[in-house]
Amino acid sequence: MAVQSLLFSLAAATLASTAAAATSGEFSILAMNVAGLPSILNSNDVPGDKATNAGTIGTYFSEYDYDMIHVQEDFNYHAYLYATDDHPYRTATSGGAAIGSGLNSLSNFDWIDFSRTKWATCSDASGADCLTPKGFTFMRAIISDGVYIDFYNLHADAGTESGDETARAANLLQVAEYIDTWSTGNAVMVFGDTNSRYTRSLDNITVFEIENGLTDAFVQLEHSGVNPTVEVDCDNPSLVNNCETVDKVFYRGSKALTLDATYFNYESSKFLQANGSVLSDHNPITVNLTWSVGTTLRQSGFWGGPHGTWFNDLDSIPASPKASVLSFSGGSRLDAVGLTLADGTTFSHGGTGGTAVSLTLGSSEYWTEAELCQGKYSSETRNFYILATTSAGNTLSAGTSTSDCSTFTAPTGWQIVGFMGQDGDEMDQLAFIYAPQ
Ligand SMILES: *[C@@H]1O[C@H](CO)[C@@H](O)[C@H](O)[C@H]1NC(C)=O
Ligand SMILES: *[C@@H]1O[C@H](CO)[C@@H](O)[C@H](O)[C@H]1NC(C)=O
Ligand SMILES: *[C@@H]1O[C@H](CO)[C@@H](O)[C@H](O)[C@H]1NC(C)=O
């Protein structure tokens, strides 16, 4: 399980009934291609019965208890894998080979906003990558109260013919562009089977570093921070960590969350059959990461549903922010939220409908609390209502209250200075950004 050190602020500790949220912790991840293509199609050079082997892998998942596991090629032996694994949160399979993507996540963390995306490009130049709809998955995992990381699992096109490399570069770019749209401002982890190596320059595996600002945990911890220029392949099982596999782990923090990889290891020696044979043709990779919430910016939990387009004010907040004007619009539901900071920075999200209302705050008055109420519209969940309360007890509301509400309160001595979430004509999903007063 994730170790979460509870750092109580003096103020919170004196309020016996207020449980302080964890502000730092550590977790582990595992990336593993489980070689689950039907054995008549591909033995994956793994001896033994694939169903038995899948059950053994699941037993190890339970025993070693990694906090977030991404599997690839989890096709036709999926039920055996899940039968012996005991992680509390797991994705439902998208199907066997030819139907599903083989991508699943097994986690100690719950998540929101899970989605599966197919590759726009595939190549049968070598192998049969177009046989099954491979691609990537996205989920926003809840590491702790107000602590989220966007996790991406992927399985890119295989092979080294030029058609393969073109397809693979397109796959990796598709994930990078998705991150730019759907994870703006957020902490991100991308791990799985990239089928790429740094020496396969046409693949553009550096796209995650260049376009998304992600760090490769292998390069950081086992390669002195320098991308490999010579291909050093791994044995299986690998007894050393300084060789490179096509399975990779990338990550970044955010302005509200520091993330740092502290440990990298090929776990192959811990994933063997009773007689010592391997369970997969890939070396599984574990990475440990430490996290801590920001000292100048943090965030609340989310309310509403995963519809509309992602937005995030986090990267646009100036130093020493303070809300001076709140402006909302609502009617039957919540149409829009906005605020103007003391330095003139303006944020505005949602549509143009509804009745506009606003509240101007005094020079020593802070926006400290917000209640959101959600409901269903056209069978999709969105925010129907907001009630803002300031440190002086003034309030501003918009929309129509429902029976499904949540109150977000800035930590003691902090205030609300911005928003993140998903919007369209209305406020589909919303969270608040906190800064010290
Ligand atoms: C990795 O993190 C897990 C979960 O916090 C912990 O149990 C384990 O001891 C860590 N391993 C190392 C080598 O730091
Ligand atoms: C281990 O057992 C499997 C399944 O019975 C078998 O196929 C494989 O050859 C064995 N490996 C060794 C090293 O004996
Ligand atoms: C490689 O990545 C860079 C940086 O994002 C991008 O500009 C370039 O178009 C990519 N090349 C290919 C072939 O995808």
UniProtKB/TrEMBL annotation:
GO biological process: phosphatidylinositol dephosphorylation
Entry keyword annotation includes Ion transport: no
GO molecular function: endonuclease activity; phosphatase activity; sphingomyelin phosphodiesterase activity
Ranges that cross the membrane: none
Alphabetized UniProt keyword annotations: Endonuclease, Hydrolase, Nuclease, Signal
Any one annotated GO CC term: cytoplasm
PANTHER family: SPHINGOMYELINASE DDB_G0288017 (PTHR16320:SF1), SPHINGOMYELINASE FAMILY MEMBER (PTHR16320)
InterPro entries recorded: Endo/exonu/phosph_ase_sf (IPR036691), IPPc (IPR000300), Jacalin-like_lectin_dom (IPR001229), Jacalin-like_lectin_dom_sf (IPR036404), Sph/SMPD2-like (IPR038772)
Signal sequence residues: 1-21
SUPFAM superfamilies: DNase I-like, Mannose-binding lectins
Residue span, Jacalin-type lectin domain: 308-436
Keyword Nucleotide-binding: no
Pfam families: Exo_endo_phos2 (PF22669), Jacalin (PF01419)
Protein name: Putative endonuclease family protein
CDD domains attached to this UniProt entry: Jacalin_EEP
